[in-house]
């Protein structure tokens, strides 16, 4: 089954309480990102960080900003999810990227149909090789002025990840840029750093100040929403805000979990304090 990456992105943004520009704008001004965007140095950029740092929403923000800025170039992407069979394999990544390329240039599908490809070939032992050849053909026939390929959460590609990494490092060219994200896994670092195409790194841990400010911005936004929804008094608002900022440890995930629980039901001040006793976690 083929998943539409556009709808997957919209769903992920919706289920993560929507996209807050102030929480990702810092990366658009980061020197490493700007060099990659301008095509200076490596055309392969790896955004890396520990769990809960907001990598997926960061890339969703980048995708939307690049789409707004795109002029004659094409942005294709896929957000991997380990729990979804349509989004957790190397084959799924290439299928999703191909889908968006063909949606941008429908004439390309005619060429593919007239070639030696069939649906069965996607699913047999040759499926990966067929997809790679299709991808190469589409890239060579495309009339686009350039392509930016974005793949989020390589660590959540649990099937044939090695194939995907080998394919990714061969992609960067004068007309193609690649942006990927993942956790800080050495095996992914090794896969992305062959001698010919050494990836540029953007570590969220090394940009702790920017990530911390983004988390605080997110918390302020969520607490303001809670105050409006549940009519918190100022004392309760400050209690929630200060607790979240103190315990979040520069991660979005824990703060989002607590805010979601506080959103579910109307709580008086005493119950709010009880809910805030959820142990802080760094995942």
TrEMBL record:
<protein>
    <submittedName>
        <fullName>Vegetative incompatibility protein het-e-1</fullName>
    </submittedName>
</protein>
<dbReference type="Pfam" id="PF24883">
    <property type="entry name" value="NPHP3_N"/>
</dbReference>
<dbReference type="InterPro" id="IPR056884">
    <property type="entry name" value="NPHP3-like_N"/>
</dbReference>
<dbReference type="InterPro" id="IPR007111">
    <property type="entry name" value="NACHT_NTPase"/>
</dbReference>
<feature type="domain" description="NACHT">
    <location>
        <begin position="43"/>
        <end position="183"/>
    </location>
</feature>
<keyword id="KW-0677">Repeat</keyword>
<dbReference type="InterPro" id="IPR027417">
    <property type="entry name" value="P-loop_NTPase"/>
</dbReference>
